[in-house]
């Protein structure tokens, strides 16, 4: 599993990022992987689409992210810190992952769980929003 340790808070996470204008989600993850780690990867499949909880910034602006989780496969390259967003990067075996927040561990478990469908989920706490398979 390719992981990065964030420079801002020290958390270990799968590679994450934000889509650039005009970019598809599958293109964005491959770009982010390469930018953050120097690794070239290919998308195997989309595994989950998640509605993240709303975010309110100090200036009062609000937004809500839509996460797309992909299972990707290494093509070439050795992991290295390739930008200022990460302090460390590397491959980890599934049974020796570094400590990470539960939502990132769930992302990894979901990606490695063979499924025929994409999981639709939400971080929103509401009785009428449920995970759909």
UniProtKB/TrEMBL annotation:
Residues covered by the Nudix hydrolase domain: 1-114
Keywords linked to the UniProt accession: Hydrolase
Pfam families given in the database record: NUDIX (PF00293)
Gene3D superfamilies: Nucleoside Triphosphate Pyrophosphohydrolase (3.90.79.10)
Domain of life per record: Bacteria
Hydrolase found in the keyword field: yes
Record carries keyword Amino-acid biosynthesis: no
InterPro entries, per the entry: NUDIX_hydrolase-like_dom_sf, NUDIX_hydrolase_CS, NUDIX_hydrolase_dom
Cofactor: Mg(2+)
PANTHER family: ADP-RIBOSE PYROPHOSPHATASE YJHB-RELATED, GDP-MANNOSE MANNOSYL HYDROLASE
Stated name of the protein: ADP-ribose pyrophosphatase
